[in-house]
Amino acid sequence: MKNPIASWLVISSVFIAGLAVALSLTSLPTGAGNPKVLTVSFSNTNYKAFLEEAGRRFEHDHPGVSVIYMTPVATHREHLARTLRLAVAGEIQDISLQSYDQIAILMRRKLAIPLNDFIDSETDWNSLGLTAASMDACKLADKVYALPFESATPTLFFNKDLVRRAGGDPDHLPNDWDGILALAGKIHDLDDKIIGGFFDYNGSGNWTFQAMITSQGGRLMSEDDRAITFDGPEGRRALDIIRHFGQTGMVDMTQDQAFQAFTAGQIGIITQANTQLAPFEEEAKGRFEIQTMRWPLLSDRGRIPIGGRAMMMLTRDPQKQKIAWEYMKFLSNPQMQTLLAKMTGTTPVNMIAIREPAYLGEFYREHPNQRAAIEALPRVTGWYTFPGNNAARIFELLRNHLRDVAIRQTDVDKTLAAMSKDVRDLLP
């Protein structure tokens, strides 16, 4: 017979542990009110070791200052939700590493602190080394609301073995969509069970669809957020490309299923974030080699939406803001950006770190598959979020339409009209 007291103790300990975790996710750490204590939030435990090391180094350089990290949540969406809950409760972290597409949400809710005055106070801001394009991705209405922390961009991954079997040359891949789709068709012709090309329509925030629009110099909406602008020639061309991907053997799959199929050698070309390079290469090791390519640009005005995290100042305490600004600059410097890349595998946004041999210059010369992400950096733009409270619903609707075009081969013009109507109905 089980000991009821022991059982009660187990249940109680589980409850208390769960309560402690819940509290750590919805309230600020002890000491957060101290003007010398910086509270910092982020998502994804893969960044934990780097940030803890960065915190130790910053504290060493700034005696008396403490950096406390909130318990990380798993996803960007959870991170934003927790930040908004804290704001409603009347308390908020000092600095938050938020996804680029969430900068606008925190700005519209008047939680983000503009950084223009801090930047203007620097005697030689450009000497820090942050790329102009990544800085522009943090701007809204001529105000800077974040500093770039890292970069992720939509990228093309090729199975070099399948490319060769289809008569292609991995060292001279086509760099336009017509050539890429023609190659995908030849790969599919090798075997009906092989998917020539897979367009990832499941990405968060319709990231790859945005890339199709912005790479043509277009936008999802007008700069004042009042008019839909993806329903013109750029949208039609984007859907036509996605529809042609579907004709190379695509089947409906989740992201995880598509990743597994690619690394198993069942997909010739796949669109995905450059951050998937390391796991793709690890899983494909011993079976085939991978070649990457920067997202094709269809216009001189073409841009690529930036993903990953940006650093946002949320504290309104003037004394804390000064320390927060120093911390944000610290994470942006070449030394810390180099450490970030080495510890997490992400792409830095500091060009000094990227180019100089003393930092990462030699690494990028010796790892050509990393160049796609580096080549994209000068052409990045913001990751757009629709205004109002229905952004998540809009993204879900658009994803369904993208799936229909690729998998069900729905008519491009009819689908584009339906997409435009569905979005318009959900806008404020």
Task: Please characterize this protein's 3D structure.
The protein is of the alpha/beta class and 428 residues long. It is built from 19 helices and 13 strands. Strands 2-1-3-12-6 form a five-stranded mixed β-sheet. A four-stranded mixed β-sheet has the order 8-9-7-10. Strands 4-5 form a two-stranded antiparallel sheet. Strand 1, helix 2 and strand 2 form a beta-alpha-beta unit. The N terminus is likely disordered.
What key attributes describe this structure?
single chain; 428 residues; alpha/beta; five-stranded mixed sheet; globular; disordered N terminus
Q: List the uncertain runs.
A: 1-26
What is the topology, as strand order, of the major beta sheet?
2-1-3-12-6
What gross morphology would you assign?
globular
Distance between the termini: 61 Å
In total, the number of strands is 13
Our Rg estimate from Cα atoms comes to: 23 Å
Mean pLDDT: 93
| Main beta sheet | 5 strands, mixed
TL;DR of this structure?
This protein is of the alpha/beta class and 428 residues long. Helix content is 47%, strand content 12%.
Write the layout of secondary structure elements.
Elements: H1 4-26, E1 37-41, H2 48-61, E2 66-69, H3 76-88, E3 95-99, H4 103-108, H5 116-120, H6 132-136, E4 139-140, E5 143-144, E6 147-148, E7 154-159, H7 160-165, H8 177-190, E8 195-198, H9 207-214, H10 233-246, H11 255-263, E9 267-273, H12 277-284, E10 290-294, E11 304-305, E12 309-313, H13 318-332, H14 334-344, H15 351-355, H16 361-366, H17 371-376, E13 380-381, H18 391-408, H19 412-426
Parallel strand pairs: 1-2, 1-3, 8-9, 11-13
Antiparallel strand pairs: 3-12, 4-5, 6-12, 7-9, 7-10
